[in-house]
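Bug #77: duplicate submission created two jobs. Keeping one. Sequence:
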Amino acid sequence: MSTSQQTDPLIGRLVDGRYRVRARIARGGMATVYVATDLRLERRVALKVMHGHLSDDTVFQGRFIQEARAAARLADPHVVNVFDQGQDGEMAYLVMEYLPGITLRDLLREQKRLSIPQTITIMDAVLSGLAAAHRAGIVHRDVKPENVLLAEDGRIKIGDFGLARATTANTASGQMLMGTIAYLAPELVTRGTADARSDIYALGIMLYEMLVGEQPYKGEQPMQIAYQHATDSVPRPSAKNPAIPEQLDELVMWATERSPDERPTDAREMLDRLREIEKDLGVFPHVVRTPTTSTVRAAIIDDGIDSGEVTKVLPGSFTAPTVTDDVDNATRLRRRARRNAGRGAWLLVLVLLLAGAAGGAGWWFGSGPGSMVAVPDVEGKSIAEATAILQEWSLVAVPGEEFSRDVPTGQTIATDPAAGTRVDKNASVTVVISLGPQPHDIGALGGKTLDEVTQSLEELFITASGDPSRLFTDSPVGTVVSASITPPGGGEAIPCTDGCRALETSTVSFEVSAGPFPDVVGRRLAEATSTLKAVELTVASTEEFSADVDAGDVIRVADRDGGGPFRPGDTVTLVVSKGPEPVAVKNVTGSTIRKAVTALQADGFKVNAGINDADIPLGGKYWDIYCVESYSPTGTAPRGATITLTPILCFLQG
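Kept job's structure:
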């Protein structure tokens, strides 16, 4: 053990009560990687620990956690698995799959230029892993040979998702975005934006390097290289290595087009083209193995770029991997048969012997003592049912949880590794159980526009149950007056006008303002009717007497049946004036003027006594000696009408 290993305070420490640190295997600018033992599951893991001086940096912490989340979302045999992420005191860490082996960078440093079978084998695996990432909406952003791992057992995986982001959040700035300059897409230099096609560009540069033995652009300063990416076209690999097939030449040119629109849309499209090329060339992916007799040790050193680490292998610590074809005996024998068709019956014997050997190996690894098992499909099962099924296949269920809008609460969403993936017996399989739709706190909805609240709720996967109900209020047209939310699957609606807590996939019902109710009081009936019909109201009318409102004018609007504010489509009843109510005029003939005036005024009439100061100088003083000879009108008259009296001296009446 080196002095640095001996002085490393983490060696021998138990992290988070679970991971016993055994040795340091790598160190980079952002983190140090150790090999550790997971005491709970009794397996070796790689423990990636963020450097202490970065623990207070929220940007680096976010990037560290992002790596765990991005990789954990992927279940693909060509992606390095992330098992856990946590915090032990001030120390942030990731727990990853431990893969003894080397990186593609080590292989390129050892061999310079790779053979066509080696190149196809590695590209097929890397594209498969990256296709899974793109399918999950994840952009890697740091594709380079340092992040392609070649394990001793032949597995090829892409790792280090430290710069990965969802495709819906594809902008950033500065070196955090840029990744390694040598593999930088032009749009990252000119616009600072990245998507799946930026990963494709990096893959094209990496493919060029594997075929040619060097990168297409060189410069003393990083910005010189970045400028070439932005302004130049990548040369054909065959210009440096004439042995490169034209199909691979074209694949490099397609992947490295300066315009993203001219490249493959994602890794799946590029992988499909690569597999067509494999058929054209008759070259198919093989197992890439590092010799088991060599001891592989890796150390990660800082490359001075914020994009991640560069994996280095200590001098003399490995032998370059070899490409074998022992997993494709049938193809190899077919080729040999074509070349040696005339050699006779011994070839048939050889075929039978090799077929028998392949069959024996197939039995050993397929169903014999050395077998692996495929993870069964337990989607839709409860945790108890999933655990029992996995136990039948000699697998250990580890519960996990995740919100889901599609899978009912308590049922399995998926497993990690995914169903169908072959794993060792007694391996742990995470069973992701649905927590149901995710809850969200919703702010007050009342007083906002319908478009505003509909958009904000749709972002939370809460949708309107139908057209909103409209009612006349003093609020502006289209303003939300009330809102109620019904949980998924039905149930009692909860009011949410002033805010509430609701689940995704709930439905919301709105009442919105149709504007103020038209003021039609005092208007003629025809005018009021026209005004109300213009706002989708039906009009009915009734009449009553009014001493204050002219006949034919609206006195008031009757209350709505059932109460509450009127709504478009309602019937509105208008109360229309018939004028003053008619009153019977008392017969006051023969009564004194005073008695007649008093009686008629009591009934609400005005009275013209027929005696004034001009006719009788002393006026009302004589009302007791004058009597009513006649009056007008007689019969009935509207209340408030004037009754005119004709006076006569009482002693002159007959």
